Amino acid sequence: MNRATSVFVSEPGDRSVLQVRDHDLPDPAEGEVQVAVAAAGVNFIDVYKRQGVYPVSTPFVLGEEGAGTVTAVGPGVSEVSVGDRVAWCQSTGSESTVVNKPARLVVPVPDGVDLEVAAAAMLQGLTAHYLVTSTYAVRPGDVALVHAAAGGVGQLLVQMVTARGGAVVATAGSDEKLEIARALGAEHLINYSTVDDLAAAVREAAGRGVDVAYDGVGRSTFDASLASLRPRGMMVLFGGASGQVPPFDIQRLNSGGSLFLTRPTLGNYVAERAEYEWRAGEVLGAVADGSLRIDIGGRYPLSEAAAAYEALEGRRTTGKLILVPNA
Ligand SMILES: NC(=O)c1ccc[n+]([C@@H]2O[C@H](COP(=O)([O-])OP(=O)(O)OC[C@H]3O[C@@H](n4cnc5c(N)ncnc54)[C@H](OP(=O)(O)O)[C@@H]3O)[C@@H](O)[C@H]2O)c1
User: Fold this and answer.
1) How far is the CA of 281 from the centre of ligand 1 (A)?
2) pLDDT digit string (tens) for 170-226?
3) What residue's CA is closest to ligand 1, atom 37?
4) Ligand 1 in contact with 214 (CB < 6 A)?
Protein backbone atom coordinates (compact mmCIF):
# COMPACT_ATOMS: atom_id res chain seq x y z
CA MET A 1 0.00 0.00 0.00
CA ASN A 2 1.21 3.52 -0.88
CA ARG A 3 0.04 7.03 -0.12
CA ALA A 4 -0.98 9.59 -2.74
CA THR A 5 -2.25 13.16 -2.80
CA SER A 6 -5.01 13.84 -5.33
CA VAL A 7 -7.54 16.42 -6.51
CA PHE A 8 -10.99 15.03 -5.67
CA VAL A 9 -14.44 16.11 -6.84
CA SER A 10 -16.60 15.58 -3.76
CA GLU A 11 -19.96 16.14 -5.52
CA PRO A 12 -21.08 17.74 -8.81
CA GLY A 13 -20.77 21.51 -8.71
CA ASP A 14 -18.61 24.58 -9.09
CA ARG A 15 -14.90 24.82 -8.21
CA SER A 16 -15.70 24.80 -4.48
CA VAL A 17 -16.30 21.03 -4.68
CA LEU A 18 -12.59 20.41 -5.41
CA GLN A 19 -10.67 18.93 -2.48
CA VAL A 20 -6.97 18.10 -2.39
CA ARG A 21 -6.27 15.32 0.10
CA ASP A 22 -4.08 12.33 0.94
CA HIS A 23 -5.35 8.77 0.55
CA ASP A 24 -4.19 5.18 0.32
CA LEU A 25 -3.21 3.83 -3.08
CA PRO A 26 -3.03 0.05 -3.54
CA ASP A 27 -0.20 -1.68 -5.38
CA PRO A 28 -0.85 -1.91 -9.14
CA ALA A 29 -3.31 -4.68 -9.99
CA GLU A 30 -3.02 -7.15 -12.86
CA GLY A 31 -2.41 -5.26 -16.10
CA GLU A 32 -1.66 -1.97 -14.33
CA VAL A 33 1.41 0.19 -13.90
CA GLN A 34 2.11 2.60 -11.06
CA VAL A 35 3.44 6.00 -12.12
CA ALA A 36 4.97 8.90 -10.20
CA VAL A 37 3.18 11.78 -11.92
CA ALA A 38 5.40 14.56 -13.27
CA ALA A 39 2.47 16.55 -14.66
CA ALA A 40 -1.27 16.22 -15.27
CA GLY A 41 -3.11 18.17 -17.96
CA VAL A 42 -5.97 20.57 -17.29
CA ASN A 43 -8.81 20.19 -19.80
CA PHE A 44 -12.31 21.43 -20.39
CA ILE A 45 -13.65 17.89 -20.06
CA ASP A 46 -12.66 18.09 -16.37
CA VAL A 47 -15.07 21.02 -16.04
CA TYR A 48 -17.92 19.05 -17.64
CA LYS A 49 -17.20 16.09 -15.32
CA ARG A 50 -17.00 18.29 -12.24
CA GLN A 51 -20.28 20.01 -13.15
CA GLY A 52 -22.04 16.72 -13.85
CA VAL A 53 -22.60 17.53 -17.56
CA TYR A 54 -20.76 14.22 -18.13
CA PRO A 55 -21.99 12.17 -15.15
CA VAL A 56 -19.34 10.50 -12.96
CA SER A 57 -20.14 8.97 -9.57
CA THR A 58 -18.54 10.96 -6.75
CA PRO A 59 -16.12 11.20 -5.11
CA PHE A 60 -13.62 10.81 -7.94
CA VAL A 61 -10.13 12.05 -8.75
CA LEU A 62 -10.12 14.63 -11.54
CA GLY A 63 -7.89 14.68 -14.63
CA GLU A 64 -7.81 12.72 -17.90
CA GLU A 65 -4.14 12.77 -18.82
CA GLY A 66 -0.63 12.91 -17.49
CA ALA A 67 2.97 11.80 -17.77
CA GLY A 68 5.54 10.44 -15.36
CA THR A 69 7.94 7.64 -14.50
CA VAL A 70 6.89 4.04 -13.87
CA THR A 71 7.63 3.01 -10.26
CA ALA A 72 6.03 -0.47 -10.21
CA VAL A 73 4.24 -2.87 -12.56
CA GLY A 74 1.42 -5.26 -11.72
CA PRO A 75 1.17 -8.95 -12.64
CA GLY A 76 0.99 -9.68 -16.36
CA VAL A 77 2.65 -6.45 -17.50
CA SER A 78 5.57 -7.16 -19.80
CA GLU A 79 5.65 -4.24 -22.25
CA VAL A 80 6.38 -1.55 -19.63
CA SER A 81 9.21 -1.55 -17.05
CA VAL A 82 10.10 0.32 -13.88
CA GLY A 83 11.91 3.53 -14.84
CA ASP A 84 10.11 3.96 -18.20
CA ARG A 85 8.91 7.47 -19.04
CA VAL A 86 5.25 7.23 -20.07
CA ALA A 87 2.24 9.37 -20.89
CA TRP A 88 -1.49 8.67 -21.15
CA CYS A 89 -4.91 10.17 -21.77
CA GLN A 90 -8.49 8.93 -21.68
CA SER A 91 -8.14 7.90 -18.06
CA THR A 92 -9.94 9.77 -15.29
CA GLY A 93 -8.00 10.20 -12.04
CA SER A 94 -4.73 11.72 -13.20
CA GLU A 95 -4.41 14.78 -10.95
CA SER A 96 -2.38 13.00 -8.31
CA THR A 97 1.15 12.47 -7.05
CA VAL A 98 0.99 8.73 -7.87
CA VAL A 99 -1.50 6.80 -10.02
CA ASN A 100 -2.26 3.26 -11.10
CA LYS A 101 -3.10 3.12 -14.81
CA PRO A 102 -3.91 0.28 -17.21
CA ALA A 103 -0.70 -0.58 -19.10
CA ARG A 104 -2.70 -0.54 -22.36
CA LEU A 105 -3.28 3.21 -21.88
CA VAL A 106 0.33 4.28 -21.45
CA VAL A 107 2.62 5.14 -24.33
CA PRO A 108 6.38 5.76 -24.28
CA VAL A 109 7.61 9.36 -24.15
CA PRO A 110 10.36 9.83 -26.75
CA ASP A 111 13.85 10.81 -25.61
CA GLY A 112 14.23 14.56 -25.53
CA VAL A 113 10.57 15.26 -24.79
CA ASP A 114 10.09 16.72 -21.34
CA LEU A 115 7.47 14.90 -19.23
CA GLU A 116 5.58 18.15 -18.60
CA VAL A 117 5.38 18.75 -22.36
CA ALA A 118 4.28 15.15 -22.94
CA ALA A 119 1.46 15.53 -20.40
CA ALA A 120 0.41 18.77 -22.08
CA ALA A 121 0.42 17.19 -25.54
CA MET A 122 -1.63 14.06 -25.06
CA LEU A 123 -5.35 14.81 -24.84
CA GLN A 124 -5.44 18.00 -26.85
CA GLY A 125 -2.81 16.72 -29.30
CA LEU A 126 -4.60 13.46 -30.03
CA THR A 127 -7.84 15.42 -30.35
CA ALA A 128 -6.44 17.85 -32.91
CA HIS A 129 -4.85 14.86 -34.68
CA TYR A 130 -8.09 12.91 -35.11
CA LEU A 131 -9.99 16.06 -36.10
CA VAL A 132 -7.63 16.91 -39.00
CA THR A 133 -6.81 13.34 -40.11
CA SER A 134 -10.04 11.45 -39.64
CA THR A 135 -13.15 13.52 -38.79
CA TYR A 136 -12.42 15.78 -41.75
CA ALA A 137 -9.14 14.88 -43.44
CA VAL A 138 -7.66 18.26 -44.35
CA ARG A 139 -6.14 18.45 -47.84
CA PRO A 140 -3.93 21.07 -49.47
CA GLY A 141 -6.03 24.06 -50.49
CA ASP A 142 -8.75 23.51 -47.88
CA VAL A 143 -9.84 26.40 -45.70
CA ALA A 144 -10.64 25.53 -42.07
CA LEU A 145 -12.36 27.70 -39.49
CA VAL A 146 -10.75 27.26 -36.05
CA HIS A 147 -12.42 28.92 -33.06
CA ALA A 148 -10.57 29.78 -29.83
CA ALA A 149 -7.42 29.44 -31.89
CA ALA A 150 -5.05 30.48 -29.08
CA GLY A 151 -6.48 27.84 -26.72
CA GLY A 152 -5.13 24.37 -26.05
CA VAL A 153 -6.78 22.45 -28.88
CA GLY A 154 -6.96 25.60 -31.01
CA GLN A 155 -3.20 26.17 -31.20
CA LEU A 156 -2.66 22.54 -32.20
CA LEU A 157 -5.40 22.66 -34.84
CA VAL A 158 -3.84 25.75 -36.41
CA GLN A 159 -0.48 24.00 -36.65
CA MET A 160 -1.86 20.68 -37.91
CA VAL A 161 -4.17 22.22 -40.54
CA THR A 162 -1.36 24.35 -41.96
CA ALA A 163 1.08 21.40 -41.85
CA ARG A 164 -1.38 19.52 -44.09
CA GLY A 165 -1.48 22.38 -46.60
CA GLY A 166 -4.72 23.96 -45.42
CA ALA A 167 -5.37 27.61 -44.64
CA VAL A 168 -6.86 28.67 -41.30
CA VAL A 169 -9.44 31.32 -40.49
CA ALA A 170 -8.74 31.78 -36.78
CA THR A 171 -11.05 33.36 -34.24
CA ALA A 172 -10.29 34.40 -30.66
CA GLY A 173 -11.58 36.74 -27.99
CA SER A 174 -8.74 39.26 -28.10
CA ASP A 175 -6.17 40.67 -30.49
CA GLU A 176 -3.36 39.32 -28.28
CA LYS A 177 -4.75 35.81 -28.66
CA LEU A 178 -5.07 36.28 -32.43
CA GLU A 179 -1.41 37.22 -32.58
CA ILE A 180 -0.57 33.80 -31.13
CA ALA A 181 -2.64 32.12 -33.84
CA ARG A 182 -0.98 34.20 -36.53
CA ALA A 183 2.48 33.24 -35.30
CA LEU A 184 1.49 29.56 -35.58
CA GLY A 185 0.44 29.96 -39.21
CA ALA A 186 -3.18 31.17 -39.27
CA GLU A 187 -3.80 33.19 -42.44
CA HIS A 188 -6.99 35.05 -41.52
CA LEU A 189 -7.74 36.48 -38.07
CA ILE A 190 -11.10 37.48 -36.58
CA ASN A 191 -11.71 38.85 -33.09
CA TYR A 192 -15.19 37.44 -32.53
CA SER A 193 -15.84 39.66 -29.57
CA THR A 194 -15.86 42.70 -31.88
CA VAL A 195 -17.75 41.54 -35.01
CA ASP A 196 -21.54 41.70 -35.40
CA ASP A 197 -21.89 39.06 -38.11
CA LEU A 198 -19.27 36.36 -37.56
CA ALA A 199 -20.28 34.20 -40.54
CA ALA A 200 -20.06 37.19 -42.90
CA ALA A 201 -16.63 38.03 -41.49
CA VAL A 202 -15.43 34.45 -42.04
CA ARG A 203 -16.72 34.39 -45.63
CA GLU A 204 -15.15 37.74 -46.38
CA ALA A 205 -11.79 36.66 -44.91
CA ALA A 206 -11.74 33.31 -46.73
CA GLY A 207 -13.21 34.67 -49.96
CA ARG A 208 -15.74 31.81 -49.89
CA GLY A 209 -17.44 29.40 -47.54
CA VAL A 210 -15.01 27.28 -45.54
CA ASP A 211 -14.57 23.54 -46.13
CA VAL A 212 -14.66 22.63 -42.46
CA ALA A 213 -15.53 24.40 -39.20
CA TYR A 214 -13.77 23.06 -36.09
CA ASP A 215 -15.93 24.41 -33.27
CA GLY A 216 -15.12 23.65 -29.62
CA VAL A 217 -16.74 26.85 -28.35
CA GLY A 218 -20.26 25.60 -28.97
CA ARG A 219 -23.29 27.58 -27.93
CA SER A 220 -22.02 31.07 -28.85
CA THR A 221 -20.45 30.13 -32.22
CA PHE A 222 -22.48 27.18 -33.55
CA ASP A 223 -24.89 29.19 -35.72
CA ALA A 224 -22.10 31.24 -37.27
CA SER A 225 -20.01 28.13 -37.90
CA LEU A 226 -22.86 26.49 -39.82
CA ALA A 227 -23.44 29.67 -41.82
CA SER A 228 -19.72 29.89 -42.69
CA LEU A 229 -19.59 26.57 -44.57
CA ARG A 230 -19.48 26.02 -48.31
CA PRO A 231 -22.11 23.66 -49.80
CA ARG A 232 -21.37 20.11 -48.57
CA GLY A 233 -19.00 21.51 -45.96
CA MET A 234 -18.37 19.75 -42.65
CA MET A 235 -19.50 21.13 -39.30
CA VAL A 236 -17.39 19.58 -36.53
CA LEU A 237 -18.81 20.46 -33.12
CA PHE A 238 -16.27 19.03 -30.69
CA GLY A 239 -17.05 20.90 -27.47
CA GLY A 240 -18.98 23.57 -25.64
CA ALA A 241 -16.60 25.93 -23.85
CA SER A 242 -19.31 28.62 -23.99
CA GLY A 243 -22.10 26.14 -23.17
CA GLN A 244 -23.74 23.17 -24.83
CA VAL A 245 -25.56 23.68 -28.14
CA PRO A 246 -29.34 23.28 -27.79
CA PRO A 247 -31.34 20.98 -30.13
CA PHE A 248 -31.68 22.47 -33.61
CA ASP A 249 -33.77 22.07 -36.76
CA ILE A 250 -32.10 19.44 -38.93
CA GLN A 251 -33.52 21.14 -42.05
CA ARG A 252 -30.80 23.75 -41.59
CA LEU A 253 -28.34 21.21 -43.01
CA ASN A 254 -30.46 21.21 -46.17
CA SER A 255 -30.92 24.97 -46.50
CA GLY A 256 -27.25 25.55 -45.66
CA GLY A 257 -26.20 23.53 -48.71
CA SER A 258 -26.31 19.77 -47.96
CA LEU A 259 -24.04 20.26 -44.95
CA PHE A 260 -22.52 17.53 -42.79
CA LEU A 261 -22.61 17.72 -39.00
CA THR A 262 -20.71 15.56 -36.53
CA ARG A 263 -20.22 15.74 -32.77
CA PRO A 264 -17.08 13.61 -32.29
CA THR A 265 -15.29 12.58 -29.12
CA LEU A 266 -11.71 11.37 -28.66
CA GLY A 267 -12.71 8.00 -27.18
CA ASN A 268 -14.11 6.79 -30.49
CA TYR A 269 -10.86 7.66 -32.29
CA VAL A 270 -8.45 5.89 -29.91
CA ALA A 271 -10.53 2.88 -28.84
CA GLU A 272 -8.16 0.41 -30.51
CA ARG A 273 -4.63 0.24 -29.13
CA ALA A 274 -3.15 0.44 -32.65
CA GLU A 275 -4.99 3.66 -33.43
CA TYR A 276 -4.09 5.13 -30.02
CA GLU A 277 -0.41 4.27 -30.59
CA TRP A 278 -0.48 5.74 -34.09
CA ARG A 279 -1.94 9.04 -32.98
CA ALA A 280 0.24 9.33 -29.86
CA GLY A 281 3.32 8.35 -31.85
CA GLU A 282 2.67 11.02 -34.49
CA VAL A 283 1.90 13.73 -31.93
CA LEU A 284 4.81 13.02 -29.57
CA GLY A 285 7.07 12.42 -32.57
CA ALA A 286 6.19 15.84 -33.97
CA VAL A 287 6.91 17.37 -30.57
CA ALA A 288 10.25 15.55 -30.47
CA ASP A 289 11.33 16.74 -33.93
CA GLY A 290 10.21 20.30 -33.25
CA SER A 291 7.46 20.43 -35.87
CA LEU A 292 4.65 20.71 -33.28
CA ARG A 293 4.89 23.43 -30.67
CA ILE A 294 3.31 22.87 -27.25
CA ASP A 295 2.62 26.11 -25.39
CA ILE A 296 2.41 25.56 -21.63
CA GLY A 297 0.45 28.63 -20.56
CA GLY A 298 0.55 27.94 -16.82
CA ARG A 299 1.87 25.49 -14.19
CA TYR A 300 0.07 25.00 -10.87
CA PRO A 301 0.68 22.78 -7.82
CA LEU A 302 -2.14 20.33 -7.02
CA SER A 303 -3.16 22.55 -4.11
CA GLU A 304 -4.01 25.32 -6.61
CA ALA A 305 -6.08 23.22 -8.99
CA ALA A 306 -9.13 25.43 -8.43
CA ALA A 307 -7.16 28.48 -9.56
CA ALA A 308 -6.17 26.69 -12.77
CA TYR A 309 -9.81 25.94 -13.56
CA GLU A 310 -10.84 29.46 -12.64
CA ALA A 311 -8.40 30.75 -15.28
CA LEU A 312 -9.51 28.21 -17.91
CA GLU A 313 -13.22 28.79 -17.39
CA GLY A 314 -12.64 32.55 -17.22
CA ARG A 315 -11.04 32.67 -20.73
CA ARG A 316 -7.82 33.99 -19.23
CA THR A 317 -5.56 31.24 -20.61
CA THR A 318 -3.66 30.55 -23.79
CA GLY A 319 -2.19 27.19 -24.68
CA LYS A 320 -2.21 24.44 -22.09
CA LEU A 321 -2.39 24.50 -18.29
CA ILE A 322 -0.77 21.70 -16.30
CA LEU A 323 -0.75 20.64 -12.66
CA VAL A 324 2.71 19.75 -11.36
CA PRO A 325 2.45 17.59 -8.21
CA ASN A 326 5.98 18.34 -7.05
CA ALA A 327 6.02 22.07 -7.87
N1 LIG B 1 -14.55 16.16 -28.46
C2 LIG B 1 -13.31 15.92 -28.07
O3 LIG B 1 -12.77 14.86 -28.38
C4 LIG B 1 -12.58 16.98 -27.30
C5 LIG B 1 -11.32 16.71 -26.77
C6 LIG B 1 -10.62 17.76 -26.14
C7 LIG B 1 -11.22 19.00 -26.01
N8 LIG B 1 -12.47 19.20 -26.50
C9 LIG B 1 -13.12 20.50 -26.42
O10 LIG B 1 -12.30 21.46 -27.02
C11 LIG B 1 -12.63 22.74 -26.48
C12 LIG B 1 -11.35 23.45 -26.12
O13 LIG B 1 -10.77 22.79 -25.01
P14 LIG B 1 -9.41 23.27 -24.39
O15 LIG B 1 -9.17 22.44 -23.20
O16 LIG B 1 -8.39 23.34 -25.46
O17 LIG B 1 -9.78 24.74 -23.90
P18 LIG B 1 -9.23 26.13 -24.42
O19 LIG B 1 -9.57 26.27 -25.88
O20 LIG B 1 -7.82 26.30 -24.03
O21 LIG B 1 -10.11 27.15 -23.59
C22 LIG B 1 -11.42 27.44 -23.99
C23 LIG B 1 -11.46 28.71 -24.85
O24 LIG B 1 -12.77 28.82 -25.38
C25 LIG B 1 -13.04 30.17 -25.62
N26 LIG B 1 -14.36 30.54 -25.09
C27 LIG B 1 -15.31 31.18 -25.80
N28 LIG B 1 -16.38 31.42 -25.02
C29 LIG B 1 -16.09 30.94 -23.79
C30 LIG B 1 -16.81 30.92 -22.56
N31 LIG B 1 -18.03 31.44 -22.45
N32 LIG B 1 -16.22 30.35 -21.49
C33 LIG B 1 -15.00 29.82 -21.57
N34 LIG B 1 -14.27 29.82 -22.73
C35 LIG B 1 -14.81 30.37 -23.83
C36 LIG B 1 -11.95 31.00 -24.91
O37 LIG B 1 -11.07 31.51 -25.90
P38 LIG B 1 -11.35 32.99 -26.48
O39 LIG B 1 -11.17 33.94 -25.33
O40 LIG B 1 -10.34 33.17 -27.55
O41 LIG B 1 -12.76 32.99 -26.99
C42 LIG B 1 -11.24 29.98 -24.05
O43 LIG B 1 -9.88 30.29 -23.85
C44 LIG B 1 -13.57 22.48 -25.31
O45 LIG B 1 -14.89 22.69 -25.73
C46 LIG B 1 -13.34 21.02 -25.03
O47 LIG B 1 -14.44 20.42 -24.41
C48 LIG B 1 -13.15 18.20 -27.13
Assistant:
1) 24
2) 999 999 999 999 999 999 999 999 999 999 999 999 999 999 999 999 999 999 999
3) 148
4) no
